[in-house]
Design goal:
Blueprint lengths: L4 H10 L15 H10 L5 H4 L8 H5 L2 H14 L10 H6 L1 H14 L7 E7 L5 E6 L2 H18 L16 H13 L4 E6 L3 H4 L2 H9 L5 H11 L3 E2 L5 E2 L12 H18 L3 E5 L2 E6 L2 H17 L11 E3 L9 E8 L2 E8 L1 H14 L8 H19 L7 H22 L3 H10 L4 H8 L5 H4 L3 H6 L2 H4 L6 H18 L3
Amino acid sequence: MKKTEPRQLSLVFADSPSGGGSPEPSDASERRSFLLHKARNKKTTGSVAGVADVSRLLEEVASEANLAKALLNVVRNKGAPGLDGQTVEDAEAKAPSIIARLRRDLLAGCYRPGDVRRVWLPKPGGGQRGLGIPNIVDRTVQQAVLQVLEPIFEPTFHPSSHGFRPKRGAHTAIAEATGYLKEGYQTVVDLDLANFFDRVPHQRLLARIAERVQDQRILTLVRLMLTASVVMPDGTRVAIKEGTPQGGPLSPMLSNVVLNELDGELARRGLRFVRYADDCNIFVRSERAGQRVMTSIRRYLENRMLLQVNEEKSDVRKPEELHFLGFRFRCAKEGEVYKVCILLSHKTEGRLMKTVREMTPPNWGRSISSCMENISRYLTGWISYFRLCTPEAVKGLGVFDAHVRRRVRAIIVRQKKRSRFLYRHLKAKGVSSKAANGCAFCGKRAWAKSNRPAMTKAYPPSWFDGRMASLKALWNDLNLPRVSAQLSLGF
């Protein structure tokens, strides 16, 4: 069965063993064999979308194979239970009855989504983001609808839209933005939509879907999902009249359906842009052109699409001032061409420092090796996303590595508790009596002691090699294939 790339990625993470525990059951396990068998029983819509009858899509959605594949994807993606408390493990165990009931209810037109559980997540820049968590069965139906509609709408999306799409993502968005900067479009209209997912007009969204879907039963089903009531953390039940709550599998694609109209308008005007979800950057050549575009696009969004621009986050900026998907840019002209450096944004640097501070608290009470293991896991995942940084950012990564090593040294100092214990420990590590005495009995706090010559000699950077990940070393490892490819071209 042909799979799209995002589902391959979710399979990798879902089947990976969690740290220190026993591995999760594989797809060949007895618990999952039913879903695998049904999902592979026949080709689902994803592989035959080109010939699907768009007037009878509900039969495709409710097919046993499509529902089995949908539930399999929901189980693999894990996630928290909805209001009914059913977990993905419970749903997997009851897969035959769930699929049979959903198929019957969908075809009979009596399926009704349950209420959505609302949780609030803190935003990095302050404030809270509302997340809607549907029940597992409702997530399965949304996934089944997504598997049918995505092949229909995906070819219609603009190439400069990178969010929540197969074979696209943040890295492809940064690559396209870099290309525009190299061409000399170095003034950026940074557009951010205010509470976009909570303000999408339902009628406008359904009208966009109806342009390519003639099956009215699918439109009714999507409407039911959009208007499912939300239960707040305090138990209050809120009716929904607009928006596509974040948290369900279908919401990202619906947001692209809405914003594809904006993409078309920008393309019609001949503008160069990169959009990732509701974060859109338009590249122009001058400040004056940027202000003109900002004014006209704001008017278009508010009057035509009934969406609001976030005035605090939107502005006309230089590449160095940008915060786009965690990166910023630096442009310099070298001869007739521009060199573009990809750097960490200032917000990203601040978040990284904050996370490491939280992972290395002064009162760390476990072994130092477990602390370094936690840091290594986090940094390894972090650099896999930010590996796009160019060599100009490597110096900053080295400074950060030194800061992390000092924080670990400070924990070691605190764990020795008394100055005489620290003195003996440093002596045992081969430090001279004079240096050990100058560190242990200097009268300073642990943070100051962590950078004394005795501590840096006892725990030099080489001591951390193999014990704790280094961002600079990880970046070099991840970028070695590119260097090798360039060298091989010379032979």
